[in-house]
Amino acid sequence: MDTTSQVGAVPTEAAQGFLRADFPWYTLDDGWTGPRWLGTVGTSPDGEVDYGSLGHGDEPVRSYLAQDPAEGRRFAVVVTVASRPQRRLKDGTGLLEATSVASAAWLAGSGLLTATEQVPMERALRQEWLDQQTTLAWDLADAIDGPGWTSLTLPVNGTPQAFRYRESEYGWVLAGDAPGVHLGAYGRGVSAYGLGFTTVTDLSVFNGE
């Protein structure tokens, strides 16, 4: 990855994780004209960057049912997951599972949960709800070719690409493949049907840069 064209000569701390990746990042294409922001990156136990997210629109708040519709948030987050085979940790202590479209689906689903909180409730009930939803998200990701998902075709670098897609009361999640990576995305208040994806060429367009 060309770090100079990605972010300029002096990258900020927020961009360091993105710049350490050995795979391309994906974002919404030029059809998206709203704000863009840096999400987070995830690393393996040996410190290798394995995935990360880039956000579009309003940064989500932990509420999915605003009392005032004007308080609703519109966002779409793109999750890029490195395409990696099963591999041994560098220190030889264990194996890391291969990544897959299901990995992207799980990360997108859990990302949507992170951006979502049930209406105010007692802490134990909220945790029970979160545990149930997390288990459901994992089960759905593990059965991404099953009836819980539908097919959706969206452009990736201008080429039509098949994705698996599902909606819930909290928002939508999709996952598929792109050159060198697995792609996931999730959002709320933004239709997934008109989206397109492209490789990132300049991280400076994301706020925080």
Automatic annotation (TrEMBL):
Organism: Streptacidiphilus monticola
Superkingdom field: Bacteria
Name listed for the protein in its UniProt record: Uncharacterized protein
